[in-house]
Amino acid sequence: MESQTIVEALFLGLLEGLTEFIPVSSTGHLLLAGRFLGFESNGKTFEVLIQLGAILAILTVYFGRLLKIARDLPSDAGTRRFVAGILVAFLPAVVIGVLAHGFIKAVLFESPMLICIMLIVGGIILLWVDRLDLKPRYTNVMDYPLSLCLKIGFIQCLAMIPGTSRSGSTIVGALLLGADKRSAAEFSFFLAMPTMAGAFAYDLFKNRDVLTLNDASLIAIGFIAAFISGVFVVRYLLDYVSRHGFALFAYWRVIVGTVGLIALILAK
């Protein structure tokens, strides 16, 4: 491995962990950064597989909470409803993700102009929603009804367009459907676990024949970096969102999308 490639993999891993759980589109950031750095991976597999680091980050931070859920599952109806809600919200992504996998990787992932536009549009929507005087009806993720979870699950599928943001779409959807900011972000965390794990496993299976030892080494570097930065974000995001909302992320999206568009136009 060239040292430059190792540094790029390390940078992209840090970028993945820092952006996965905030509403700015980690995939969009990775694809744009990889394009401008000249970083190429077989089938864009690196960008998906380093998400394992972010998955383990959230599992680490939420281990105690997940252990309690597992213990309460056999005896507590509320816990069973919550787990069922996460699974219901996950199902639309499974169906649409499998059916559209080829199109997403071959077309959408190769459209940097689209990514920049979605970053800007998503930023404007996030800023608009953040300024609405919404009256939350749901403040605890354990109390989300199944119908709400299913609607959030369908909204999450918008994130299959890179630049949209999985966390952004689920958080905005939950807010508009009656959730408060903290529980919307927390539900997004929980929904990320099966969604990201499923995307990781499916992409690994689809690309098992094109991965090389060099790919594995770079993915390992990106994974470790994503894990470390992901732990930091998960630990502090909920408190930040509760106090300050999402305006910072909205402005960041607009800035990155605009700079990306300008760079792409000048590069032509």
Quick take:
It is a multi-pass membrane protein. The chain has helices at residues 3-19, 26-37, 45-49, 51-61, 63-72, 77-99, 101-106, 112-131, 146-156, 166-176, 181-206, 213-244, 247-267.
Basic shape: globular
The value of Rg in angstroms is 18 Å
The biggest sheet, with number of strands, parallel, antiparallel or mixed sense and barrel status, is: none
Oligomer: single chain
Give the strand content: under 5%
Give me the secondary-structure category.
mainly alpha
Number of domains: 1
Helix content: over 70%
* Total beta-strand segments: 0
Low-confidence region ranges? none
Total DSSP helices: 13
H/E element order: HHHHHHHHHHHHH
Keywords: Antibiotic resistance, Cell membrane, Cell shape, Cell wall biogenesis/degradation, Hydrolase, Membrane, Peptidoglycan synthesis, Transmembrane, Transmembrane helix
InterPro entries: UppP
EC number: 3.6.1.27
Organism: Phyllobacterium myrsinacearum
